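User: Modeling request: complex.
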Amino acid sequence: MARALIVGGGGIGRGFVPWILNGFAIDIYDTDTQLTQGIAEQGFFTSWMSDGAELRKLVVRPERVTSDFADIDPTGYDIAFISVGPRNIAKLPSQVGLLTCPVFSLENDPITVEWLKSLYGMKDAVFGVPDVIASSTASPESLAADRFSLHTENGVMFLQESKRVDDRLKALLPDVEWLPVDQLNAEWDAKLYIHNTPHCVAAYLGYLSGCTYLHEALARPAVARIVDGVVDEILTGLKLVTHHDHDFLESYARKEMRRFSNANLYDPISRVAREPIRKLHPSGRLMGALRLLLTSGVEPVHLMAGIAASLRYLEPRDRDCEALRLLPEFGVKAWLKFHLSIPPGSIESDYVAQNFDAASAYLDRVLA
Amino acid sequence: MSLRVLAASISRAFVEKVSSEFTVVQKVKHDQLRDVVTPLDEHLHQIAEGFVASMMPGTRLLSEEGELTEVSAVELATGDFLVVDPLDGSNNVALGLPGFGFMAGHLRAGVLVGAVVVVPEQDLYLVVEGGELVTSQPVQLGAQAAANASASVYYAYPPHLSERGRVARGQVLDVIDARTSGVYRSGSACIGLFNLISGRHAAFVAHHVRLWDALGFFPVLSQLGYEVRYRVTPGSIVLVASLSQELCEDLAQALAADLEGPLSSFQRNNQVVVCDD
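Assistant: Request completed. Predicted assembly structure:
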């Protein structure tokens, strides 16, 4: 039987990846000992896939689920997936570099592949784009039946073609779309800006609106209006400055609001909104999108509202909360410089500094 | 109130007060051309002064640009002070050269309970508080940024040293030249110390510099596991810091000719031994 290792038992790793591993023996590594011990004792966990109005059930019985990488035989797998969050890549156990199988980073940023290569010597690590919204939790009913259950949507796993992946392995993964790296990067571009940007904006707006789940936020007309506006602005920008097929961009954008509004996902705002400083990275889904729009001549009115909302994400349990609390003392320009190295005088810094107060006032008005 | 608020206010000032009117030389202190004061020095000092007045009741400000610049050894060892260099590297700022920063150490009953360092050219502030080191961005420091084989040694010393001091200086330079790629001086102890913790320097030596030129960095060095040997008097600091215990010891020995007593070792409890001048 083929064997797969999933590093990171969160929404993607535990909620979505098992759906493509039909017929594989699965091992899971995660640093959360409560999670791993609990699943090990229980012997299984449940993933629920939202497919239109229907919820499909998958009971996953991992062979091994552990928080100690010494329990893992790095030579014993046919494929491995890493999905621990970009900030945690540097905290992986060093033995992860001993994996001999093809390793796919599902970390939402191709730079993580370079990190795996440089930090752990994984010279054959490649990229994957799980085009899916996978919650880190489940509905109250699902949790009552299995406290380790998760909800996910019916997404698509795009994996980079690699000489390490032979036809035998591909045959074992019929639900995977294999793409050459250029095409995968095009998918990632679209995913980053058309999916990730409005997705996190919806989360920040939802936080300010007092919502718990993303679908609750999208049910509010003011939030939906702003998120729609972000999608339109991003779409216009991408059409102006990239060579992506416009039909592809349009169709991808059309399905986004439906995905975000899926009431079967139970995707917590705390998951989608987490670590706003990472999401505000100069090349990322918020500031990267801002630069894209400003340099292509698209007025980022709705995106600016989203950025203002991200700078007001003061969830006490989030690791970035303390830094964001100090925004009034820093002032916008100094905050962006010292936390993100966005230089004062740059197009992004100037725009956000000039428009933050007005955008904040607008949010207070429409989200009240 | 957290020292991070002070870090925020200082960081803001570095961004907002960068025009030429803030970097002109306003005065030269003690007839020392390296000891200039700019409007930026004054502004940063006023921020620290305001912070102490409003957020640190009972604490006295000991600042390079303040009225209170001298205290006794007993006062220093038992009192509550925020020891501040508002703009370390003022002459670099005035000349348009790189290398400047802000340092503050909170000394309470002889224990350094907190520190703030702001290095705007690195887009970074560091705060030590509650036994924890916080940086504004992820950065590799200390053992994670272990010094290169070709690392130099930053050596800070004042313009006038006694005869014994000049002898000791020669001995320090001999150790530096024999053991490392050489001496480095750039007009800012703050940047010298930052380059130490970033792995660019193998060691940092401060030879009878002023209290505020280095005290604020002690908690940072301690948090990062540096070997720190020092002598603090109300008038000056002697400091040797390195990840290498051996190099630290050799440099401390070289300085011994100019010291009234042995250097103390700065421990994780952050207790500072204050000697008489």
